[in-house]
Structures are given as C-alpha cells and as structure tokens.
Specification:
Length: about 270
C-alpha cells in the first residue's frame, strides 16, 4: 500500500489529467480536501457545487460556504428535492442510490454548462467497506471518485488535511440526516427537523462526533466512548430538550458511535 504522501501525488496526477472539474461539495473532511487539491492543481478550472436539501443540516451549509470562500473557489448552490421522489422517501435500502442519481444528474448539467470535463465525488477508499449504493449512481452517470481511485483512506485525508492547514482536518464525519432513519421507515420533513434539532443541541453541549438515530418515538444517541460520561452527567437536561423536540424515550447506545450502524441489520441478514 502506498504512503499517504504517495497517494497525494497520485491524486494530483489524476486531477491534472482531468484538466477541469466540478466538485460535489458538502463542506466535510473529504470533499474539502478534494476541493483543496483540485484548486491547487486546476486553479480556476474547478468549481464547487453544494446542494441545499432538507436532508442536510443548515449548519453544514454555512460551513461549506465559509470553506469555499476561504479556498477562493467559485461556489454554486443548488436545490434538490429528494422527498418529492417516492423511491427515496419510502426509504428502501437503495435510498442513497436515488439521492445520488438525482444530484449527479444536476451536477452533470452544470458541468456541461461551464465546460468542465468531470464531476467529482468525495467518496474515499474506506467507503468500499460499507454499504454505499450511491457509488453505483456515481459510476453509472460518469462521475469520478478520485480519493477512492488514489486509495486515500479517512486517516490519510485527515493527516494530509492537517499538513495543508485545513480547519476541517478533525471535523466530525458527516452523513445526510436521512441516514438516521431505519430502512423502511418513511422519511419526512418532520423527522428530519427533529433529528437536526436534537443533534444541534448535543453539539452545543460540546459533543463532537455523534448521531441521533430516529426510531419513531425513540431517540438512540451514538457518541464516542469518551463522550458518554458527559451525556450521563447531563442526562436530565438532554431528556428534557429531546422531549420538547418530540421524542418520548431517549436512549444512549452503549456501543457508541460507529459508521453505518443502520446498515448492521443488512449485514446480519447477509451473513
């Protein structure tokens, strides 16, 4: 396996061969690193596009705006309407495929309108270890995932981001709010708002990496093991706020935060 520095060289070589690109930009660790690398290689032949959607926190939109401005990259905002698509809103296990297909289709149109050669997605090499149906849509519509192609893992990206003085190097991992809802449970605006409010409240208490998994009247909180004592200390305050938001029962997952916990039942059935 190449070193992280060698992977970065490969990434920049790949970007240079592309000539120009549009980066699907969320403001997270991976897409910020990709945007920075693309800007260094392609200069003004790269633009960033961020989707405004009910499935993403407004807090992350502001973060994306700030980082794109800091990097000096042209930044375009578009709106997507995933909940209007029954294939997405019904929340099948292929949910992410339908979401990503709509997004990449819009980005392809924008790329053509700006005479850009490629649409780039921020998936990294670690994503291959999880269930990611959205990657199928990326391939079908001709977009590229250069971080994954260059074998860059999340740890590589965080380390290299720190070397590049990117403030996102230690930012908690992101995922759309719909990923907090179990497959088969319908995705609604009301549920997404509850999740967003609950996670914002915990972030304001000083919790970094977290997820509030929405099981109808039950909120299942995932945090890193080192943050569990804080939640226990503030359990009455947290319970009171979560009940205001609309939850009846508030639980703390003793396994702690882990990527893709909603995919665990799929893996168990496949085993």
């Amino acid at each position: 396996m190449p070193t992280s520095d060698e992977k970065l060289v490969n990434l920049k070589r790949t970007l240079a061969e592309m000539g120009s690109a549009l980066v699907a930009y969320s403001g997270g660790v991976d897409s910020t690193f990709l945007l920075k690398a693309a800007q260094e290689v392609l200069g003004n032949k790269v633009i960033a596009v961020t989707a405004i959607s009910e499935t993403y926190s407004s807090h992350e939109l502001e973060s994306a705006r700030y980082m794109a401005q800091e990097l000096g990259v042209k930044h375009i905002l578009i709106r997507t309407a995933e909940l209007a698509n029954e294939d997405f809103a019904s929340n099948p296990k292929e949910r992410c495929y339908f979401c990503k297909r709509e997004l990449i289709s819009q980005l392809n149109d924008i790329a053509r309108g700006h005479n850009l050669n490629y649409v780039l997605d921020g998936s990294n090499y670690d994503d291959l270890a999880d269930y990611r149906p959205g990657m199928k849509a990326v391939g079908e519509l001709g977009a590229r995932s250069p971080l994954k192609e260059s074998l860059l893992t999340k740890n590589d990206i965080r380390s290299l981001s720190r070397q590049m003085n990117l403030s996102t190097w230690n930012k908690p991992s992101l995922a759309c709010l719909a990923s907090r809802i179990p497959y088969g449970d319908r995705i609604t605006s009301e549920k997404l708002i509850m999740i967003d409010q609950a996670e914002a409240f915990l972030r304001n208490l000083g919790v970094g990496q977290l997820r509030v998994r929405h099981h109808e009247t039950i909120a299942r909180i995932e945090v890193l093991p080192e943050d569990i004592p804080l939640l226990l200390l503030l359990r009455e305050k947290i319970s009171a706020r979560f009940k205001e938001i609309g939850y009846t029962f508030i639980t703390l997952d003793l396994q702690g935060y882990r990527m893709g916990s909603m995919n665990e039942p799929l893996k168990e059935r496949a085993a």
